[in-house]
Amino acid sequence: MHTPTHDSDFSRTVDKLADDPNPYEPAVGSMPENDMSQADLDNVNKTGTTTIGISTADGVIIATDMRASLGGRFVSNKNVQKVEQIHPTGALTLVGSVGGAQSFISTLRAEVNLYEARRGENMSIEALATLAGNFARGGPFFAIHPILGGVDDQGSHVYSIDPAGGVMGDDYTVTGSGMQLAYGHLEQAYEPDMSNEEAKTVAARGIKSAVERDTGSGNGVFLAEITGEGVDIHGHHDFDDVL
């Protein structure tokens, strides 16, 4: 074997690898540090938001308001769809920073599609909730607190997923800046054997209660109806259309 010529391209490559104990192992990257200032955070588009998920005898109802704001003080968009289908029979809400929530939804939707392609069956909603919690805990999804709702062979499911990756299932749940106002209504109105149509009214009234007092919520309601047949989402700027 010939000795590489001094200062040749090959010799320089050998020098670079000299301190590497195993150059054949993959390089492990690192996540960029979050060095955003408070001024930067105030200019992030946030959903503010009130989102509600209710498990029913027929499936799941998810309701959200339609407002996005900058720093909670300026309305940046009055027609935001804050609930998206991510599974053939499941949907997720957007709560927190718009960018983080959109990235979170895209990532989960891709994982659901991969699971179906590889295994030839749909992911269970419980498995999807676990995956969502893992992503929230370990991924770069900034300031999110969504609701996941879905229907599978085990029945109807509603989960809240906190920013630290905690996953909690319940018959109904609320997240967002108007949650205390909406919870007050749901505590009085929820019934475990409600139909989807009854739950739509209860959820819409919960959103309306939050909109009346929470500046981060407003401009109407999106309603998602989830059954074993699929997901149906419609927006209403006038609450009278659904009450």
From TrEMBL:
Source species of the chain: Natrinema salsiterrestre
Keyword Magnesium among UniProt keywords: no
EC number: 3.4.25.1
NCBIfam families: arc_protsome_B
GO CC, any one term: cytoplasm
Gene Ontology MF term list: threonine-type endopeptidase activity
Lineage: Archaea, Methanobacteriati, Methanobacteriota, Stenosarchaea group, Halobacteria
Protein's UniProt keywords contain Secreted: no
Top class in the EC scheme: hydrolase
Regulation of its activity: The formation of the proteasomal ATPase PAN-20S proteasome complex, via the docking of the C-termini of PAN into the intersubunit pockets in the alpha-rings, triggers opening of the gate for substrate entry. Interconversion between the open-gate and close-gate conformations leads to a dynamic regulation of the 20S proteasome proteolysis activity.
Compartments reported by the entry: Cytoplasm
Residues of the active site: 49 (nucleophile)
InterPro entries: Ntn_hydrolases_N, Pept_T1A_Psome_bsu_arc, Pept_T1A_subB, Proteasome_sua/b, Proteasome_suB-type
Protein name according to UniProt: Proteasome subunit beta
UniProtKB keywords: Autocatalytic cleavage, Cytoplasm, Hydrolase, Protease, Proteasome, Threonine protease, Zymogen
Biased composition (Basic and acidic residues): 1-19
UniProt region (Disordered), positions on chain: 1-37
Known catalytic reactions: Cleavage of peptide bonds with very broad specificity
BP GO annotations: proteasomal protein catabolic process
